[in-house]
Amino acid sequence: MPHLLKSNELSSSTPPPIPSADAQVLEFRRPRGKERTPSRTSPQLLEAGQDLGPLRGQVTEIIDSILAETGPDEAEVRENLRRHVANHPGRPEKALLKHLLNVSS
């Protein structure tokens, strides 16, 4: 006998399949600790951005020290960091994270 999993989440993209007469429908539940978290609202995002002040200061110092280097061996690394900083204006922490992820891979 075929089994169909039925999600307990609402989905607006596709309608649920119609089970055949001999199919058994099983309810699907997320494992504990895997519940979805609600998305942040604009005031929460604004507050989170204000909490990043000290971090942004430290990250800016790190970026400045990397860009101040003059060794020709690291010229490509500095150029990539400049590109990430340009792609994420006002968000140096994200630029540095993207740069570090790029360098590590």
Q: Could you give a short account of the major beta sheet?
A: 2 strands, parallel
What overall form do the CA principal axes indicate?
Answer: elongated
The residue-averaged pLDDT reads 75
Low-confidence stretches: none
Between the first and last Cα atoms, what is the distance in angstroms? Answer: 47 Å
Estimate the strand proportion.
5-15%
The string of secondary-structure elements, in order, is EEHHHH
| Arrangement of strands in the largest sheet | 1-2
Q: Give the oligomer, counting copies of the same chain as homo and different chains as hetero.
A: single chain
Q: SS-based structural class? A: mainly alpha
Q: How many separate helices?
A: 4
Helix content: 40-55%
- Count of β-strands: 2
- As a whole number of angstroms, the C-alpha radius of gyration is 24 Å
Structure explained in plain terms:
By secondary structure, the protein is mainly α. The protein has a domain at 52-104. Helix content is 50%, strand content 10%. The protein is built from four helices and two strands. It has helices at 42-51, 53-68, 75-87, 92-104; strands at 3-7, 24-28. The chain has a two-stranded parallel sheet with strand order 1-2. The longest helix has 16 residues, at 53-68. The protein is elongated, with a radius of gyration of 24 Å. The two termini are 47 Å apart. The model has no long low-confidence stretch (mean pLDDT 75).
